[in-house]
Amino acid sequence: MQKKHRVFNAIRLKKVDRIPTSYRGSDYISVKLMEYYGIENTDGLKAGYKELLEKLGADFWSSGSKIGKFSTFFPRYLGPLPEKPYVEDGQLFHALGINSTIGTISNFNIKYVKFGIDPPLANISRASELKKGFLTSKLGLFNFKEMTNRYISHELTYENLKDSENDIICMGAINNFYMICSYLRGMDQFLMDLVSNRKLAENIISEVGEFCLEFNRRELESFGNKAEYYGSWDDVAGQDGMMFSPELFKKYFLPPYKSLIENVKKYDLVFGWHCCGNVNDVLPSMIDIGLDVFDVVQTSAKDMELENIYIDYMAVRSACMGL
Predict the structure, then answer these.
(1) pLDDT tens for residues 73-95?
(2) pTM, rounded to two decimals
């Protein structure tokens, strides 16, 4: 069975020859593995990713929210680049005024992006200070008709990947409803706003939702018929449970996710959602509105053991589908 066939059969609860697998690791770990297997890393990870997957016995290389790290396409950004000390974040957040810097885990020489530095809305206190359209005015910074691979390479163009059984064409950007709010406002402050400054929180959520849905409507209109998988992520949970009440998630964030998923399904795409931690309080609601793939099951979080997840969700889904 070919890799792509295996993965989509598993997602649709059809017969597979074996359980499909994906690999995900930091650049540091990936390079070390390539060195261990004797893979020549002449042009970064993008040159040797298929060889490493073969050595590991994995089907695909996940980015976390996308099943294809090296086959994901974003609309071309036309705006100014961040000024130092801020950096491009790889998620297009900088286009929204969200600042990021590079963090380092020095013991392992691992570098990562620290999102939400110096939040642009940190110093406001009233909803009236929030200018209407401060995000939607930024839609013109993107060329939605020119979708490009996030890893710029001649070998990784859509034309070179579209017929490959070893790659799944992925899309999905700026669809992190909660995280964008928290990066704009500051996570601690936004969580407090949800309790003590509800009107300001509602205005931020409304502006973020309007921007994200219009951004993704245009993105899907341009590339939805070419893609196969739509990935999103929103870290709304911690190790023991939700970072804020499930009721607030269902009130403020479930409706825009429902609209997003409805639009994604118009193009017959698989919809995947990444969230770390224990997200059991809202995962059933996400499944109800059309979630196909939940990534990643963090088994170290409370009540997220694979056996429990299977019993609670897979068995119920199978019963609903008459399997």
Answers:
(1) 999 999 999 999 999 999 999 99
(2) 0.94
